[in-house]
Write a structure and sequence with these properties.
single chain, 375 residues, alpha/beta, Rossmann fold, 13 helices
Length: 375
């Protein structure tokens, strides 16, 4: 792995003139990562079209940020299912995107055990539906298909996975995302090109990241929102796998990578039509117990071990090598583990005490982008 340790040498900034007025289609905009990316794209001046299911729950970040602006002229809000091909075709036809970010998915491991067929349908067929709909685009279009760090056949290695390591997946979620990587690669090889059956102006890449944390994630069965809910209720934090190691990173970090990848794809170089890992530095690969004890330094409480032998399988050791993104995109993480935890817990505490979720998100985005422009 590239040793960067906070240095800005080699960092490539976002191109603000690239995004101004750019027509962008964003799927999954009502989810946690999608809400953050929609906000950032708005700050960059893009014309955003969106497509997603309704937000889940009463406390979704999307509702907090955009509930009062669904008729905004700055973006186009569409609710729909990836499996509804005619509806998807319509939004692609209307938007004629120059950039696509595909984040819509069934993203939870434990839910995939409850609904494996639905998980496979959304994550594999839904992705293919989008690619097929993009045949309706009449001009160059850069497509970033977001999968996960869990696409690799997990060997519980002590070193990180590279983009050319073998794909696989024990649980239905991981397997569905690995299958979507294969399907996307096959579609790109088959239908991107200049042959009569191909589309010459679509450029497709996949982005692999996971275990992102940050303000506004209220999903069930994720350790950080589970911890915050417990602390708000003065209850012990339930920890079902304290020794499992994950590559923790702030949600802004991979989003910066997705934006950089989209910019690079616009250069029409086949080098970028590939898979890219976006993970934290090696020092941020920490066991869940480290995450929880660090949270408790910022918001006092306690935790309890709720691991059981009969629980569904989840990986114990997982992290990514990010050399490729560093060398080809000029991307690398800016916030270390402690900064990520400080800002994330700070977001939740501030909102819990009455602060605006929008202002808290903008404060994090502003702090991060200042790093990108300080070299």
């Amino acid at each position: 792995m590239v040793a960067i340790k906070g240095s800005l040498e080699g960092l490539v900034m976002l191109q603000s003139d690239f995004w101004q007025g750019k027509r962008v289609l964003l799927t999954g905009h009502t989810g946690f990562k999608g809400s953050w990316l929609l906000l950032w794209l708005q700050q960059l001046g893009a014309e955003v079209w969106t497509y997603s299911l309704e937000p889940e729950g009463d406390s979704s970040l999307f509702s907090s940020l955009f509930g009062d602006s669904l008729t905004s002229q700055r973006w186009h809000h569409r609710i729909g299912n990836l499996l509804d091909r005619p509806s998807l075709d319509r939004v692609v036809q209307l938007s004629q995107p120059e950039v696509v970010f595909h984040l819509a998915a069934q993203p939870l491991v434990r839910r995939s055990y409850q609904d494996p067929v639905g998980t496979w349908s959304t994550n594999v067929l839904g992705s293919l539906h989008l690619l097929e709909s993009l045949r309706l685009v009449m001009q160059p279009c850069s497509v970033v298909m977001v999968t996960t760090d869990k696409v690799y056949e997990n060997q519980e290695w002590s070193y990180g996975y590279r983009e050319n390591d073998r794909l696989g997946g024990h649980d239905p979620y991981s397997a569905s995302k690995a299958a979507s990587e294969i399907a996307i690669s096959s579609w790109r090889s088959s239908f991107c090109g200049i042959a009569p059956h191909q589309t010459p102006h679509i450029r497709v890449a996949t982005a692999r990241a996971g275990n992102v944390i940050g303000g506004g994630d209220w999903a069930l069965d994720r350790i950080f929102p589970d911890a915050i809910r417990a602390l708000m209720n003065n209850s012990p934090i339930p920890v079902r796998n304290p020794s499992a190691t994950r590559p923790w990173q702030h949600v802004i970090e991979p989003l910066y990578g997705y934006l950089r990848l989209a910019e690079a794809l616009s250069s029409d170089r086949s080098l970028f039509c590939d898979a890219f890992n976006f993970g934290p530095n090696a020092s941020s690969n920490r066991p869940v117990v480290d995450l929880v004890t660090t949270i408790l330094k910022h918001w006092p409480g306690h935790w309890e071990d709720q691991s059981v032998d009969s629980a569904p399988h989840e990986a114990n050791l997982l992290h990514l090598q990010i050399d490729k993104a560093y060398h080809h995109l000029g991307w690398f993480p800016q916030w270390d583990f402690n900064t990520t935890l400080t800002r994330t817990v700070g977001w939740y505490r501030a909102v819990h005490e009455g602060a605006s979720p929008l202002e808290c998100c903008l404060a994090d985005l502003n702090a991060y982008t200042k790093l990108l422009t300080s070299s």
